[in-house]
Write a structure and sequence with these properties.
276 residues; alpha/beta; Rossmann fold; seven-stranded mixed β-sheet; three-stranded antiparallel β-sheet; 10 strands; globular; binds S-adenosylmethionine
Length: 276
């Protein structure tokens, strides 16, 4: 399989990268329960050397550094890295590089390879994970979180089902393992990739938090249309079609609105392993 991640490099350096920067605060608040569980599982210790893979706007890079570790955030997205660097200005414990994690040449002196949703975008995940393993000293830890299937993620599936009638049928059925947020939804496939790359002591635990997606419905629609899986689908719609689709999504989400905002369920895999 090709190690060419050019399509993802284009995607994350284009509009997607800029919208992630604009929505960084909202996204980090929404993902906070996942971040907390992931950081607890990773148990970073003072003095450790860590690679934060697909670090994006730097939220977890900074959090890991807060535990006293020295953290190297790597990402392919220039706009997201620029935002991460600005947030980390003056922090001597973090460094950032624009590089493809699948092909970066590592030295094996890190104790932890970590990622919040940054490892599902590789053209050849087996080769990419084998490369990530080379960053770890013997016995070093791998710890990341990835999404379970969209149908197990109401924060995606409710809007997705409402949107479906307005979208053209895809010319061919997409492969659910293609690079993208849900590439590792299949637990057995995920196990094959991580163990096949030479990791041992693999644990894949379900994590099913409720996410605070937005404070109100207009906020939720705006957010979903700009960031994440629904925004990718929305790019195919224009004019009246887009307005009707948004109205359908609004109607589907409305019953889930509560006093404290729109809170929807999510399902991830919390993955940990060791370099064998
Ligand atoms: C869903 S975002 C998550 C960003 C960040 N970890 C967070 O949780 O906010 C995925 C990130 O992975 C990065 N990414 C995708 N493919 C990559 C690759 N081959 N090497 C490094 N980073 C990559 C993207 O640029 C993007 O920043």
């Amino acid at each position: 399989m090709s190690q060419d991640n050019a399509q993802q490099i284009d995607y994350w350096n284009g509009e997607a990268g800029h919208t992630w920067v604009a929505a960084q605060d909202r996204l980090d608040r929404m993902l906070a329960p996942i971040t907390e569980a992931l950081l607890a599982r990773a148990a970073a210790a003072a003095g450790e050397r860590i690679v934060d893979v697909g670090c994006g706007c730097g939220e977890t890079t900074l959090a890991l550094a807060g535990a006293g570790a020295r953290v190297w955030g790597i990402d392919i997205s220039e706009p997201m890295l620029a935002h991460a660097k600005a947030r980390a200005a003056g922090n001597p414990s973090v460094a950032f590089s624009r590089t493809d994690a699948a092909t970066q040449s590592f030295t094996d002196d890190h104790e932890l390879v970590f990622s919040r949703f940054g490892v599902m975008f590789f053209a050849d995940p087996g080769a990419a994970f084998a490369n990530l393993r080379t960053a770890l000293a013997p016995g070093g830890r791998l710890c990341f979180v990835c999404w379970q299937s969209p149908r197990d993620n109401p924060w995606v599936s409710i809007a997705g089902a409402a949107l479906k009638p307005y979208l053209p049928e895809p010319a061919e059925t997409p492969d659910p393992r293609d690079p993208g947020p849900f590439a590792f939804a299949d637990r057995d496939y995920l196990r094959t990739i991580v163990e096949g790359a030479g990791f041992t002591d693999l644990a894949i635990e379900p994590l099913t938090p409720t996410l605070q997606v937005a404070d109100d419905l207009p906020g939720a629609l705006d957010f979903m249309a700009r960031v994440g899986p629904m925004s990718r689908a929305m790019t195919e719609l224009e004019g009246d079609d887009r307005d009707r689709a948004l109205e359908a999504v609004r109607a589907a989400l409305a019953p889930h609105l509560r006093d404290d905002g729109l809170r929807l369920g999510a399902a991830c895999w919390l993955v940990s392993a060791r370099a064998g």
